[in-house]
Amino acid sequence: MRPASPLLALLCAWGLSGLGVLFFGLPLVGWQLGGGVIAGLALADAWLLWRRPTPVARRRVPEALALDLEREVLLRIESPGRAQRVDVFDLHPGHWPSQGLPRTLAVPRDGAMEFTYTLRPVERGDAHFSGVQLRLMSPLRLWRHARIAPVPQSVRVYPDFAPLARLALFSADQASRLVGAHIKRRRGEGTDFHQMREYRVGDSLRQIDWKATSRARKLISREYQDEKNQQLVLLLDTGRRMLAREDGLAHFDHALNAALVVSYLALRQGDAAGLLSTGEQPRWVPPRRGMAGIDTLLRASYDLQPQPLASDYLAMATELSARQRRRALVMLVTNVRDEDIEDLLAAVHLLRRKHLVCVASLREADLDHALSAEVTDLTGAIHAGAVARYLDQRAAAHDALSGHGVMVLDVTTAQLPAALVERYLAVKREGLL
Length: 433
What we know:
By secondary structure, the protein is α+β, with helices and mostly antiparallel strands. The chain has 3 domains: 56-158, Immunoglobulin-like (Sandwich), CATH 2.60.40; 162-169 and 173-183 and 228-430, Rossmann fold (3-Layer(aba) Sandwich), CATH 3.40.50; 192-225, no CATH class. The protein has helices at residues 5-24, 28-51, 162-167, 172-178, 210-216, 251-268, 292-301, 313-323, 341-351, 365-372, 378-403, 416-430; strands at residues 2-3, 56-60, 64-66, 71-79, 84-90, 98-99, 103-107, 111-119, 125-129, 132-137, 143-149, 153-158, 192-198, 220-225, 231-236, 245-246, 249-250, 272-277, 283-288, 329-334, 356-362, 407-411. Helix 1 (5-24) packs antiparallel against helix 2 (28-51) and helix 8 (313-323) packs parallel to helix 9.
């Protein structure tokens, strides 16, 4: 409980009147009597405030929130038996930006007041609202009393699944184009038989079914489609390389979002998608078919966080080899550095015994900007030279991977979703699995 502005003003006025007693001969008894009245009023007002019941607070917020998307939170304050003026602040996770707090409410007797504020989650995982902080005013406005209304609540913050919801409105091919993938169409070619149809200009002679042609007395072509029920496994690096941030998100968040996009499209194509991460938060989701698989991937990965530890590629490859027996397209999303290349080569060599391996190496967009910037002085020249040397070392590491039969994608975070989708569809189209 703390004194409010009116009480402080009264005390200041009473203190100044004491100067009149000292220097101007004002009666001491009157000054003492005034102090007694102020003290009596303050004590009575504090006692009434102390006995006042704490208003009831209720919160309405979705149990699942999306990363970096603003959501409205509704607070309802009820005051049984007494009208009250209340300052309200919700004890949401402290580092989340909010708008509309604190709020001052005049709650009627036996009534309630509601208001909404916006909250933007900035970190995935489990988050906790500890309660609602209320500041009550005494009847004479001489005191303020801060109380906590116990309204504990836990929420889960998922990756931004709005892009997945938008992709659901389109076919698999249209959705692939929406994420920026460039798809080369090859009509009628594939590995699985789809249907018989009339011959079209451009069909190859290999597609013509001569028995069906003789029966129908017109040219009939076989149409094939990409093979279904293949396996896709995303390997997510949770090491220190993925702690770098761009556009307000860690590289790991960008990698996770892209992994969910390509997994969603794989499920739409009839394939099975799974996920593996190791380190302090090991997760294994076996590849499974069906659109319900995207929910499984979201629930399994929403609280994964990168750690300030070195990535153990060989341990990741060993674990995947033990868990994933069937041949699969394995997509590792990481940030390749030349000092990691020996460990990474050993890992991909182990994986390539059974699987088709693709390594997506994230490149910081600032490197491209630094290399393309105009050089006007010695410091700028040294900086540009250092960036160029670093990119050459990255390119050498990528060439070493390519030399061992590994598909390598050197992309920025903005290019990552389209690059993964494009490579997945290329593998399907070329029948590499």
